[in-house]
Amino acid sequence: MKFGILVNEGPYTHQASDSAYQFTKAALEKGHEIYRVFFYNDGVNNGTRLTVPPQDERNIQVNWSELGEKYKLDLVVCVAAAQRRGILDESEAKRHGKNADNIAPGFRISGLGQLIETGIECDRVVAFGD
Amino acid sequence: MSMEEDLPGTGDQKKFLYVNRRAPYGTIYALESLEVVLIGAAFDQDVSLAFFDDGVYQIVKDQDTSGIGMKNFSPTYRALGDYEVTRLYVEKESLEERGLTPDDLMEITYEDEDDDWAEKPSVRLVSRAELSEVMAEQDVILSF
Fold first, then answer.
1. Separation of alpha carbons B122 and B109, rounded Å
2. Best residue of A32, A84, A112 to probe chain B, by most B CBs closer than 10 Å
3. Please, are residues B52 and B60 in contact by the beta-carbon 8 Å criterion?
4. What are the chain B neighbours of A41 within 8 Å (beta carbons)?
5. Which residue segment(s) compose the domain that B95 sits in?
6. Does residue B4 lie within any of the structural domains?
7. ipTM score of the complex?
8. pLDDT tens-place string over residues B54-112
9. Active site residue: A16, A27, A73, A78, which one?
10. How many structural domains does chain B have?
11. What is the CATH number of the domain that holds A117?
């Protein structure tokens, strides 16, 4: 089955991102396709490479980046939600006159149309929120 | 039997339902849900919105945010008809539980192209049971 994943909460405060990660990983291991993982609302905060959680805790951002690398996942952060919350890639940082970017490896920034397209293209969209 | 055979929406359009169940202010969910609806309108899909629980407050009339330093985005709901978003399901029980009546809601209308552009109400009051039927018909449900 072709799944789309929507992550609407950031890391750590809510379990949503952990659950989305576990679901995505399990679906891939069962041979399903993950068309895209779309990060919206505070979910965009999963896409900053600047998180430094304690070493004996899971690193949610690294988990996503490694899973993305292993399965060539399309990890998409909503641009409007990301700009509100200070998640920038190099070109966005430049465009807005900011002196740094923080997008995590394997993530890319794009528009909400990518979420709608996910709904159109997938057999199921599974949303993880609060 | 493959799971694919059970899937609804075999036509070229899918049925999208945006579920709104939180108050318009206090969290950003209502505003960012509306932003998805507006972008999604460009994709020529079959779109409906549902308002229940505290979500019914999103379309209450005479909203005034001047005291909280936030933009009053409620007029945008009245523009949804221009985006061909013409079905806003509002759950009766959620209104009643909050002491609200349909008269407390904004007048939200659309022009019906199949009926000589007659202006018609977009808000459809439904019971909890009816809303569950609406939800069961959908291909994609995005809940914020």
1. 5
2. A112
3. no
4. 28-29, 32, 144
5. 13-143
6. no
7. 0.93
8. 999 999 999 999 999 999 999 999 999 999 999 999 999 999 999 999 999 999 999 99
9. A78
10. 1
11. 3.40.1260.10
